[in-house]
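REVIEWER CHECKLIST
Item 1: Sequence provided? yes
Item 2: Single chain? yes
Item 3: Sequence as submitted:
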Amino acid sequence: MSKVEDAIEKAKEMLPNITPTPPGLKAQSSVHDLKSRLEWGEPGLTILDVRPRDVYNQGHIMGAMEFPIDKLVDLAKNNFESNRDIYVYGASDQETAEAANLLRQAGFNSVSELKGGLDAWKAVAGSTEGVDESLADPGKNAYNVVDNVKNHFERQEIDFEKP
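Item 4: Structure as written out by the authors:
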């Protein structure tokens, strides 16, 4: 290598890794993990809601697909490749774990249990849709961008005031 190339390599080694990487898939994920991945803009994932259809229709994570737990494996096999990243949630963490285990036993190797489900998702101001969600009052600060950004950082457990 030339002196210039050597100098460039040496400079690269001295710099911290400034290129962020998207969060990876875990066996159990928090809603923050999923939200971070969605905010990263990574579309290579699927969110499955295994609650009954009437409950799903009332409200669910935006973009989540309704796959009833009794039809979960058949629907998943017909719609996804076994290496697809799948986040699953149900009415309880127990139902979520059961659904995730069914998928893993069926050969899906990239399945994550979304801890806390829809309630936890709403608590971090995650986007939702459904009948109840469309009737919900957006709140007095819904159109105030500064308050929304501050609220987002507070929910992410980041101190907004510090530089």
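Item 5: Key structural point noted by reviewer: The beta strands are 28-29, 45-49, 60-61, 65-66, 85-89, 111-114, 128-129.
Item 6: Recommendation: ____
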